[in-house]
Amino acid sequence: MSDLKILVVGAGATGGYFGGRLLQAGRDVTFLVRPGRAKLLRDRGLRITGLGEDTVLEPPLVETGALDRTYDLVLLAVKATGLTSAIDDFAPAVGPGTLILPFLNGFAHLDALDARFGKDAVLGGVAKVQTTIDDDGAVRRLGPLQSLAYGARTDPAPDRLADVDAALRDAGFTAALDERITESMWAKWVFIAAIGAVNSLMRATIGDVVALPGGPEFAEAVVAEAAAVAEAAGYPLPAADLAATRRTVTDPGTGGSSLYRDLLGGHPVEGEQIFGDLTARARELGVAVPVLDLVTLQLRVHQHRIG
Questions:
Q1: Average pLDDT over the chain, rounded to an integer
Q2: Distance CA 31, CA 142 (A)
Q3: Residue 80 has what pLDDT?
Q4: Residues 6+ apart with CB under 8 A from 13
Q5: Count of CB atoms situated within 10 Å of the CB of 243
Q6: Within 13 Å, how many C-alpha atoms sit on residue 275's CB side?
Q7: Which tens digits make up the pLDDT trace of 252-292?
Q8: Cβ-Cβ contacts under 8 Å for 26 (sequence gap 6 or more)
C-alpha cells in the first residue's frame, strides 16, 4: 500500500467522493476545507449516499489558514471559480517534492498552477463521476461512473508518478495512468462542452432536446464544433471518444450537466473556463464556432445578472 501523504482540496461532489474512497481504502488522506464545510463534516461526517449506499466517514480535516506541513500529493477538486483562492489556501502544503493533481474542467487552471508551482509539479488529470452535493451536505451518487485518469505533462515524468499511481489504484474506483493525458483532457473538454451547450441553450435535458425534430442534428452540430477546436489544437479526438460523445448527446436517457444544474439554480457557472477559453482558442486557431460563441455569451449574461 502507498504511504503517500495526500491532501484533498475540496470536499464537494468530486473531492469528497474520491477522497472518501481513498480514506476507506486506508490511504493517508487529509481534507483541506473552509470553516463552514469543516463544521458540517465534523457534525455529520462525510456522507456518501445514493445507489443503495449510505456511508459515513470521519475524515481528517485541516481548515484553510491552518496548514503547517507539506504533503506528497495534492488532489485539487474545486470549481474553477474558486481556483485562485484555493491555490493560496493549499500553497503551504507544497514542498520541493509535492505533486499536484488537478481535476478541473478545461485547461485554464493549468496555466495558473504552472505559474505558481512550476510545470514539473503539475500533473494532468481527468475525473469522471456522477455525483452532486445534497442540501444536507452529503455526496450523492447519481450513476455508476467513477474513474480517475492521470499522467505527466512533462518529459521526463516526475520521479514519484509511480507512487501516485500506486496510491490511487485499488481504492474502490477505476484509476489509470494515462500516457496521453493531454489528449484525454481535450476529449473530456469536448464532452462537457457539448452536453453543457445543448442543456444551456435549450434550457432542457438532452433527452427533451433530442426527442424533438431537429434536436439530434443540433446536438451533433455542437459536438462537431467542439471537436474541430481540439483537432485544430493538435489533439483530434480518438474515434471511440468522439463516437461516445455523440451517443451521449443524442441519447434520450441523458439528463443535465452540473453546469446546467448550476444555471437553473441561479448559481455561478464555469462559463469562462469551459466555453470562454474554448472559443478564445477557436479564434486563435481560425475555427468558426457560432453555436459555442452563443453559449459563451448566454452564460456571460447569466454571470453578469447574478453578480
A1: 96
A2: 23
A3: 87
A4: 129, 131, 132, 133, 139, 258
A5: 11
A6: 27
A7: 999 999 899 999 999 999 999 999 999 999 999 999 999 99
A8: 1
Residue-wise pLDDT for 159-198, tens only, equals 999 999 999 999 999 999 999 999 999 999 999 999 999 9
Of 221, 285, 208, whose CA–CA distance to 251 is shortest? 208
75 close to 8: Cβ distance less than 8 angstroms: yes
Is residue 77 a contact partner of residue 15, using CB atoms and an 8 Å limit? yes
pTM of the model: 0.93
Q: Cβ neighbours of residue 182 under 8 Å, at least 6 residues apart?
A: 124, 153, 235
The sign of the CA dihedral 105, 109, 110, 111 is positive
Question: How do strand 46-50 and strand 139-151 relate by DSSP bridges?
Answer: parallel
